[in-house]
Amino acid sequence: MEEARTRLFDELSYGGRTDEWHFILASTKCDFIRQAFFGRRLRVETNVSRIGNKSFQCIHRIMEEETGRLIAIGEAAVVHFNFQTQTSEPLPDDLQTMLAEYLAPSVGETISPLSCKKRSKKGSGISSACTADFSFSTFPRFFGPNHRRQHTL
Q1: SS3 of 77, please?
Q2: Which of 17, 53, 70, 74 has a CA-to-CA distance to 107 between 20 and 30 Å?
Q3: pLDDT digits (tens, 9 = 90+) for 102-133
């Protein structure tokens, strides 16, 4: 989940100027639906599920790559934070706009991962998701086809 969320942050970076972003991970949780087995490739899809004044919520779906079976659902609350004053701050308007492009579809809509591709047009049926693939069978880290980061654990 962390890798997929990091890919989302990379996609949202102000032209790579991530030093201007100040986030803390306020909470995270993962509910396991079924077992994942050794040697199976897993895909993590991450979308933004809620945008607040000072924070946003990510939702993660961990699925078996081959079958598409849901393995787990996770959530993460991310807060815009001022490290000098040690207080939360409002999300910048431009960041809220960018996050809105990654909003998860409404309940019941299908999520189609496009490796961090943004929602093309409102109501087009194309959703955005950041994906990260994980394999539990080989070593070491490598980049796979379509520039999708793949990690081996």
Answers
A1: strand
A2: 53
A3: 887 654 343 433 334 444 334 433 334 455 54
